[in-house]
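Ligand-bound model needed. nicotinamide-adenine-dinucleotide.
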Amino acid sequence: MKKNILVIPGDGIGPEVTTWGKAALQQIAKDYGHDFSFDEALMGHIAIEQTGNPLPDETLEKGRKSDAILFGAVGHAMYDNDPSLKIRPEQGLLKIRKELGLYANLRPILLFDELLQASSIKPEILRGTDILFFRELTGDVYFGEKQRSDDRNTASDLMIYHRYEVERIAHKAYKAAQQRSKKVCSVDKANVLESSRLWRETIQEIAKQYPDVKTTHMFIDNAAMQLIKDPKQFDVVLTANLFGDILTDEASQIAGSMGMLASASVGDGTGFFEPIHGSAHDIAGKNLANPLASVLSAALMLEISFGLKEEAQTLVKAVDKVLKEGYRTKDIADKQTASDKVLGTREMGDLVLKYLAK
Ligand code: NAD
Ligand code: IPM
Ligand code: MN
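Prediction:
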């Protein structure tokens, strides 16, 4: 199979981890006789530095023309510490999501048995958890009108949804649920927000078209609590952009670390694959980042964009083998982990490739 893949490493630990997602794709291509070609493009702080624009036109053009995109992360402490800066790395990510019509962000909570001890939640609560989040990605308060008063003392972000935006992601979530445990839990704040009432009303309508799927509705505050109390109750969780952002960082603790969670953003065209984590300034450049979320994002690309299920499974199994052998990056090491098995980013990436080649 011939495919053109665009790699956008971004900032902070982005380049450190994306190296390994890309290397895993190259190894798979070699082992299975595929012809994957790679191009690279700028986004985020690095793009601002080099072009003045967090999403240069060239990156967007390359993105549109590619068969899939592997992305790292964007962000820099400079902007986090100075809210007054007008041009910001994250604008690049938001714009490419909008421009490529990536309205559905799939975030699977993939739980490796070997990491049950790495989580701060009790193993018996976690074991058997299998959740697939559908986070709406191109609407909500992220994209509503933003305002700041002339005296700078008042600010607002409009939380807005259109019915079609809820419908299209709902169909994707219900179709996925039909292939899984046939449960959709829609999470909103319909007891307070009008946009959530539109959300709930729309889901209630769509649910009628999928009578084989059991639909429940939960308020976001309760969902945040239930996720820790009893994560096994969930199958597909369908939610809005901001709620999904927050809930999935929380859910990363079910899988053991932010460094384990991959995601796929899909919609109208080219698929976009990225870890859910950010540029992690606190560990950037120290060979401490866990590269497995990038490797698992590459697996999602193989499966979702290219339909290469076996190749995707091979990648996931290589990660599983490395973990079974007891190797850990610092973020997923527990007290029992032998110190010689705690690896840096590069060593962990190398080991995945070695296990892949076996
Ligand atoms: P973050 O996800 O970067 O980091 C949160 C915590 O998780 C940190 O302690 C970090 O060290 C740890 N962590 C994250 N990824 C890890 C990995 N692969 N291995 C080991 N540990 C890991 O979130 P933050 O600190 O809130 O944000 C930092 C910057 O990243 C900000 O500028 C933010 O805007 C940006 N950000 C970007 C994205 C993205 O590009 N998709 C996502 C989230 C945050
Ligand atoms: C994510 C990030 C982004 C988001 C930021 C960096 C714009 O947190 O991908 O989860 O909020 O969507
Ligand atoms: Mn996030």
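The pocket of nicotinamide-adenine-dinucleotide (ligand 1) is lined by residues 13, 17, 73-75, 80, 90, 93, 257-259, 274, 277-283, 289-290, 293, 331 (CB under 6 Å).
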